[in-house]
Inverse folding.
């Protein structure tokens, strides 16, 4: 009887997730610099080349990279599903996704057709490999936890989002027929499906584990991600099939709004009930994330009622406020924990005494994480303000850059600690 | 000599403190002693560490916390017997 016990050998090498975690903040630095250089032009509307480039620096460069790295770690550790040749797979994925993102962003910003085709090939290949590896791992996973369902649905959403993304990228360059009318489906499935469902599924495990809260209610864990996924498919069909009336889209949109706000309210409630009431920067990042998610839902509802959804504000609240904050906060738990785990495993397998391993708070100092949290909240507020007061776009870019540089520095510190003690 | 129980409640600690404290407490077990560890979650990383360091263990669903783990030195038959006796009243662990 093995339960979900893990052998030390099952843990993938530290380089597998860490190369993604260390690279991801650099794309946010690039996003900040982009905002400094292009200023208000990058925040005019969602269709300008600079806005599209900026958006993909955040969604592919930061969110997708961290999430792809984390899934490779979570598959064996939480799901009991090993990835074969993890080092090689991770290296290939990292190369394809980082180079693909650079190609896409330069293609979007410059209008270069060869860059867009290159991006379609690299990102299509990278995500295709990731979906195959992660899908196969999840299929064989021993865990019956609801996180597995959430991850599988999230991967399905990613598959559709990538398919439309590749079409748009290659279509933009004239290499394929372009279905521009499916942009919202690409965006909806990428953000609400891949990003949203994965964050929810991972939260089921990591919020109670690292924030010492009670578990999410079982009925919520069982039902939420399937309902959200079905609503998302309904919403996507309502956007794609002309015969479906507009109210069908609104109906599915309402289900999504209720589901995501239910998740946010439950998470805040669980955090309120936590047993250990010590200051914790991850907790604060998650509070900002949940408040932003609720704000995004309110903005969407207000937009539907008033007849004009403020798309950029909605995007900033979801991508930067919700997703980036949640991922940033969790990096501060997962990064130090992995460093500790690998130091412990090394000593164990080499038969060395398990003394002298730094504790979590020594791996990244709390004060440094707290500074970055403040910078990140400032950056979020400044970007939102810049949507109304364009003159603030460049100062917002400075804050985004500084926050990302400090995040990169803090995560590098974790790696340095590992090198020192290994 | 009577076997003795050492109780360790890690249910309000954040990873990796439960693992650290449990392994550290296990090294302090004297002859005839077993460790009864209470946790709110299934400590999936603990067991391979225990195996490699020469400890036996039993996993049970707890009464006050979700999971209880009984740990003894593998060469300590009296502690093993006492741990099994103490675990008897608890049901098998189910995820």
């Amino acid at each position: 009887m093995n339960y979900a016990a893990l052998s030390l050998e099952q843990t993938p090498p530290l380089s597998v997730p860490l190369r993604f975690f260390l690279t991801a903040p650099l794309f946010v630095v690039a996003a900040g610099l982009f905002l400094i250089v292009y200023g208000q032009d990058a925040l005019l509307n969602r269709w300008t080349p600079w806005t599209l480039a900026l958006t993909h620096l955040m969604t592919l460069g930061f969110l997708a990279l961290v999430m792809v790295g984390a899934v490779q770690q979570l598959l064996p550790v939480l799901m009991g599903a090993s990835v074969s040749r993890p080092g090689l797979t991770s290296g290939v994925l990292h190369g394809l996704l980082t180079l693909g993102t650079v190609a896409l962003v330069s293609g979007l910003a410059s209008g270069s057709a060869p860059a867009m085709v290159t991006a379609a090939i690299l990102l299509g290949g990278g995500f295709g490999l990731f979906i195959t590896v992660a899908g196969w791992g999840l299929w064989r996973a021993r865990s019956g936890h609801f996180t597995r369902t959430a991850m599988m649905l999230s991967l399905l959403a990613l598959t559709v989002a990538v398919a439309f993304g590749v079409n748009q990228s290659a279509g933009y360059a004239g290499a394929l027929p372009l279905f521009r009318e499916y942009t919202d489906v690409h965006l909806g499935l990428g953000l609400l499906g891949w990003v949203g469902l994965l964050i929810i599924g991972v939260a089921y495990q990591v919020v109670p584990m690292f924030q010492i809260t009670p578990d999410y209610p079982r009925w919520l864990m069982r039902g939420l991600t399937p309902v959200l996924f079905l609503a998302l498919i309904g919403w996507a069909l309502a956007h794609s099939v002309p015969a479906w009336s507009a109210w069908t889209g609104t109906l599915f949109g309402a289900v999504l709004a209720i589901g995501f706000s239910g998740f946010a309210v439950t998470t805040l409630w669980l955090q309120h009930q936590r047993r250990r009431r010590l200051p914790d920067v991850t907790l604060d990042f998650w509070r900002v994330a949940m408040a932003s998610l609720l704000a995004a839902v309110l903005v969407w509802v207000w937009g539907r009622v008033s007849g004009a959804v403020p798309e950029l504000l909605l995007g900033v609240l979801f991508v930067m406020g919700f997703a980036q904050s949640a991922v940033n906060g969790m990096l501060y738990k997962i990064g130090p924990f992995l460093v500790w785990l690998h130091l412990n495993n090394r000593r164990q397998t080499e038969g060395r005494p398990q003394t002298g391993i730094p504790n979590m708070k020594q791996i990244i100092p709390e004060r440094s994480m707290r500074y970055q949290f403040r910078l990140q909240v400032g950056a979020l507020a400044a970007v939102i303000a810049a949507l109304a007061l364009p003159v603030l776009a460049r100062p917002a870019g400075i804050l985004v850059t500084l926050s990302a540089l400090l995040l990169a520095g803090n995560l590098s510190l974790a790696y340095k600690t590992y090198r020192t003690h290994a | 000599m009577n076997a003795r129980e050492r109780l360790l409640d890690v249910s309000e600690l954040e990873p990796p403190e439960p693992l650290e404290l449990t392994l550290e407490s296990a090294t302090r077990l004297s002859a005839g002693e077993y460790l009864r560890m209470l946790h709110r979650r299934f400590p999936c990383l603990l067991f391979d560490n225990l195996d490699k360091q020469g400890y036996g263990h039993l996993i049970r669903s707890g009464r006050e916390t979700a999971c209880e783990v009984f740990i003894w030195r593998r060469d300590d038959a009296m502690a093993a017997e006492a741990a099994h006796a103490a675990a008897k009243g608890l049901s098998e662990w189910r995820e």
User: Anything to note?
Assistant: Chain A has a mean pLDDT of 92. Chain A touches chain B at residues 3-8, 77, 143-145, 208-210, 212, 275-276, 337, 340-341, 344, 348-349, 354, 359-360 (CB under 8 Å). The longest helix of chain A spans residues 311-350. Chain A is about 80% helix and 0% strand.
